[in-house]
Design goal:
236 residues; alpha/beta; 38% helix; 10% strand
């Protein structure tokens, strides 16, 4: 059994990849250079693929030429003090239609190599409100897969699988720890500095997850938010 796994180098995509491996799939990871402002996540994806002894396929898609996101344009990445400040509005870190572009390319790759699944680490509970991380989005893309591919028309469609979709960040991390996911190799921060910032949405949700999983985040941060500081103090 073959599966393509979207691997950004982040916590969720790495856990999703590990789940695919645990289910017995021969996994083909794919990552994208899409014009993001830093390459930290690409470096992480390479390290993770090497850790699992997998050949990483890297595709260049210049979404920065379209723009519209703090991850591709010269906008400030919003900083917050607590994960409770993450609202329902779609934030400026949303990259227009990014998952649709990525999944379409992954679908083409999967059909070419004869894979039957595409694993993606989207999550609809602890996330920043991106529209392409919702269950209905995954459902509709699977309808597209059945209609838009030769194998789909022939009755053997490639299925997009989102194993983390209905899990909290804490549940995701607990699952990853069970599978010995190398979280020390992952990168989640929207900023590309030497250490994770500890203040963007992605850092806050990641630290919240480790706290809920009763575990410690192995990567370095410029600063910890107060809720995680308290957690560390309580564990001493």
């Amino acid at each position: 059994m073959k599966a393509v796994a979207l691997l950004s180098g982040g916590l969720d995509s790495t856990t999703s990849l590990a789940i695919a491996i645990s289910l017995g799939y021969d996994v083909f990871p794919i990552t994208f250079i899409y014009g993001q402002r830093h390459k930290k996540e690409i470096e992480s994806a390479k390290k993770i693929a090497k850790y699992y002894k997998l050949k990483l396929k890297i595709i260049k898609v210049e979404l920065n030429k379209i723009g519209g996101s703090a991850l591709t344009d010269d906008y400030d990445v919003p900083s917050k003090e607590n994960y409770n400040e993450i609202g329902d509005e779609i934030p400026i870190t949303y990259v227009p239609a990014r998952n649709t572009v990525f999944l379409s390319i992954a679908l083409s790759y999967a059909e070419k190599i004869g894979a039957e699944k595409i694993f993606i680490g989207v999550n609809a509970l602890d996330y920043s409100g991106y529209p392409d991380c919702r269950p209905e989005y995954i459902d509709e893309f699977n309808k597209l897969s059945r209609l838009a591919t030769k194998v789909g028309v022939e009755g053997k469609p490639i299925e997009v699988v989102a194993p983390l979709l209905h899990m909290t960040k804490g549940e995701i991390i607990k699952k990853g720890l069970e599978l010995n996911v190398p979280y020390e190799l992952t990168w989640s921060c929207y900023n590309g500095r030497e250490k994770a910032c500890g203040a963007c949405d992605s850092c806050l949700l990641r630290l919240k997850g480790f706290m809920e999983a009763n575990a410690f985040d192995p990567i370095e941060y410029e600063k910890y938010p107060d809720f995680y500081k308290k957690y560390l103090d309580d564990k001493k």
